[in-house]
Amino acid sequence: MRFEAEWMRGGTSKCWVFEAGHLQEGGASLDVLLPRLYGSPDSRQIDGVGGATSTTSKAVILHRPAGEGVDIEFTFAQVGIEEATVDWGSNCGNCSAVVGLYAIEKGWVIPDGDVTRVVTRNTNTGQIIVQRVATPSGELPDVPSAHMPGVPFAGHLVGLGFQDPAGKTTGALLPSGAPSDTISAGGTPWTVSMVDAGAPVVMVRAAELGLDPARYETWQSGIEQQLDVLEQIRRQAAVRMGLVSTIAGAARAIPKLAVVGPPADRDPDCDVNVMMLSMGKPHPALAITGSIALTLAARTPGTVLHAMTGGPLGATLRLRTPAGVIETWTEDHDGSLLVGVDRTARTIATTIIHLPEVSRSAAAAALAGATF
C-alpha cells in the first residue's frame, strides 16, 4: 500500500500529516494502521516513519468540513512507541500549528492581507482554534524568517488562538469543582490544581518535590527521580477529573502533568517556571495545549498558579521552559475569548509512505467509524 503524506514541523514537535481520504484507502483501522506506519512497537521505530520520541511520534489527519464557518477540521493522534497503540484522548498544540499552514500551501484557504486567519476545529476536543498565519503582502514568504524557543531554524509564524477553551474535554474549567485539591501518593499529601483548558492538566508545586526555583537547571534530574510518584498523582487526577473510572484506566497522554514554581528572585524575564511531563518523561519544551491551561489557571483564584503569580498579569503570561521562555496571550475576538501562543511551522517533505499489507483482523474499528 502507498500513502500520501506531508512531514511537517509544528512548534517543537514533528508530525506526519495525512488527508482523511488518503488513509481510508488503506481499509484498516487507524489503531492498526498508524502503529504499523510508524514502526511500533519498537523503541527505535526502525521499520517505520516514527521519530522514536513522544514529540516526533505524532499524526495529524485533516478533513474539510462543509460550512459551519470552519475552514478545516483535524484529528490528532499520539502514536505509541514501545506499544502498538494510538491515543486519541487529547490534542497537540504544537502540531496544531501545521494545519493552517497546510491549508494555505494546498490552496484550501486563500491568503488575505499580511495575516491570514484560518478557522480550525480539533475533533479530539471540539476546540475551535483560530490560526493567524503570517502572509506578508498576501502570500507565504518563500523563505520563512520567524523564530521561536526550542527550534534552531526559522519557520512560518502561526498564532494559535484557542476560542473559549475552558472545559472542552471534561465540561468544566475546574473538573473537580475546586481550584485546588489534595492527592495522596507515595504516602505523602500533594497540593494540586486540576484545570481543563486546551487539555486537562494537573499542576504540582515544585516546592513539594524539593525543587529549588533558583536552580531551574536542576529540575529535570530532580523530577526524573520522582517519576513514579508523579505518575501516581497523574492517574489519581484522571479519576478526580472524570476522565476515567479507575486509576488503572488512565491514558498515557491525558491528563498532562506540569510542575510549577515561582521564578527565582522575581526574574524579570518570566512569570512562572514550568516543566511538563509528556508520556511519562520531562517534555523538552512545553505542550502548547498545556500552556493554555496554565494561562487560565493563573487567572483563576485559588489555584496553585494564581497564588504564585498573584493573579492575572495583563494580556500575556511568560512561562520558563527547558527550551526558553514561551509567552501566551489573550484576545477578545467577536465576543469570544481567545487564549493563544505563537508558534512557527514549516513543511519538511512531501512523500509517499510504502507499507506491506496490514492485517485486517481489527477492521471492525474501520475508518468509516473514525472521528474526522
Strand content: 25-35%
Distance between the termini: 22 Å
Q: Based on helices, strands and strand pairing, what is the structural class?
A: alpha+beta
Q: How many domains would you count in the coordinates?
A: 2
Question: How does this model look, in words?
Answer:
- The chain folds into 2 domains: 2-165 and 344-369, Diaminopimelate Epimerase, Chain A, domain 1 (Roll); 181-330, Diaminopimelate Epimerase, Chain A, domain 1.
- Residues 360-372 have low confidence and may be disordered.
- The protein has an 8-stranded mixed beta barrel.
- The longest helix has 14 residues, at 227-240.
- The protein has 372 residues and is an alpha+beta fold.
- Helix content is 17%, strand content 34%.
- It is built from 7 helices and 17 strands.
- Strand 4 (72-79) and strand 5 (86-87) form a beta hairpin.
- 49% of the residues are buried.
- It has helices at 20-24, 30-38, 93-105, 219-224, 227-240, 288-298, 304-309; strands spanning 2-10, 13-19, 58-63, 72-79, 86-87, 115-122, 127-134, 156-163, 181-185, 188-197, 199-205, 256-261, 272-278, 281-282, 316-321, 324-333, 336-354.
Compile the SSE list and pairings.
Blueprint: E1 2-10, E2 13-19, H1 20-24, H2 30-38, E3 58-63, E4 72-79, E5 86-87, H3 93-105, E6 115-122, E7 127-134, E8 156-163, E9 181-185, E10 188-197, E11 199-205, H4 219-224, H5 227-240, E12 256-261, E13 272-278, E14 281-282, H6 288-298, H7 304-309, E15 316-321, E16 324-333, E17 336-354
Parallel strand pairs: 2-3, 4-6, 11-12, 13-15
Antiparallel strand pairs: 1-2, 1-17, 3-4, 4-5, 6-7, 7-8, 8-17, 9-10, 10-11, 12-13, 13-14, 15-16, 16-17
